[in-house]
Amino acid sequence: MTPTASPTALATLPLADDALVLSHRLGEWAGHAPVLEEELALANIALDLLGQARSLYAGLREELGTEDEIAYLRDEREFLNCQLVEQPRGDFAHTIVRQLFFSTYQQPLYTQLAPALPLAEKAVRETAYHRDHAEQWTLRLGDGTVESHARTQRAADALWRFTGELFQPVEGLDVRWEELEEEWSAGIADVFGRAGLTVPESPRTGAWTAGAGRQGLHTEPFGRMLAEMQYLHRSHPGATW
Amino acid sequence: MVTAPVRADGEERLETLARLAGSVPDPELPVITLEELGVLRTVSEPEPGHLDVQLTPTYTGCPAIEAMASDIERVLRRAGAEQVTVRIVLSPPWSTDDISEEGRRKLAEHGVAPPRPTARADGPLLVPLSPTRRTGPASSAPSDPAIPPADPVRCPHCGSADTALLSRFSSTACKALRRCELCGEPFDHFKEV
């Protein structure tokens, strides 16, 4: 195998945006999680993701400015995150299914990028815990009560159309995308099988559904999320704690 | 804590300064030092009076890293360094295997179950034993090899191997929350990466 080329800083922007946006969505659980332990777990996962984003943004200083400028002063169209991570957090089942879909993607993605990208080499060990967390909860909810099963299946059906985009090649990232997609599909089928959930058969992408986040086109909830996330910094430029 | 400027010359001086930087307590777990935690990589002096420190985070998002950097800078300036640059390095990634024996002992004494050796550690491989208690079905996800096979996490209070996982994430990103089934005490476990 040829050695993986180190990605340029700009090629990592979609990865950084995925991490920042999902971190923010998970942060929305603060004060709302079903139990205290979950509150801490989601906050810790959010913190790991924020750390990934910061580390990658720090490498983009010459191209895009400081970490704060990149996070708080870009407009919606300038964010290259996938549409999966920007969806509202929904109920707990919704958040868990999203975590399963995303961590089952991020862990093998970082594994492939690890030799060339120090951040991926570092974070892949943490994403293994994120994946385990999502998997354990999917099993518990899917194989739980009638209500938890129904909600988890509903979440899977609703989020399914955002999963195709994950495997669109990102320019400048040396990744075997087809292999990644196969690994992801097998991983999801395995967990769903054990959780008593049905893998949706609906399209994973479509003309109007999803698939353009990497080009800067986002779904309607993202603008509102950004408005909340960026409000303070834009109203009080340079504010610090 | 040394407060007087370090006056020795050359390598000896640099070693003293490195020890000083390493003696800074971890901001979140002040029972152990940065040296024992294994996060201080190098201290060098590229130019006279200018110290370059390489520090690595435990977890990518660990907020303690900023406090660590400013604590190191303060200690080294107090010891006479004119300029201190603390650089955060990610590669090679920190592992719980980097925590020293002394660090592990102190963690256990402080009520935090130390991490078990990971599969990446050198030396003989661990013989996987079945877990004494599990809180969910076995995971079949291709987990990171760092997550070691079932080697029981012992209660730091009574030493019992009969402990249960309450949450994979605890008061900080690097710890999991467990409970001892024998003495009933909850405790933090420094989880392996």
UniProtKB/TrEMBL annotation, chain A:
Superkingdom of this protein's organism: Bacteria
InterPro entries in the cross-refs: Aromatic_CoA_ox/epox, Ferritin-like, Ferritin-like_SF, PaaA_PaaC, PaaC
SUPFAM superfamilies: Ferritin-like (SSF47240)
Gene3D superfamilies in the record: 1.20.1260.10
NCBIfam families found in the cross-reference section: PA_CoA_Oxy3
Protein name in UniProt: Phenylacetate-CoA oxygenase subunit PaaC
Species of provenance: Streptomyces axinellae
Organism lineage string: Bacteria, Bacillati, Actinomycetota, Actinomycetes, Kitasatosporales
From TrEMBL, chain B:
Signal peptide coordinates: none
Region described as Disordered: 97-148
SUPFAM superfamilies reported for this sequence: Fe-S cluster assembly (FSCA) domain-like
Annotated ranges, domain PaaD zinc beta ribbon: 148-191
Domain MIP18 family-like: 23-86
Pfam entry (one): Zn_ribbon_PaaD
NCBIfam families from the UniProt entry: PA_CoA_Oxy4 (TIGR02159)
PANTHER family: 1,2-PHENYLACETYL-COA EPOXIDASE, SUBUNIT D-RELATED, FE-S PROTEIN MATURATION AUXILIARY FACTOR YITW
Protein name, per record: Phenylacetate-CoA oxygenase subunit PaaJ
Gene giving rise to this polypeptide: paaJ
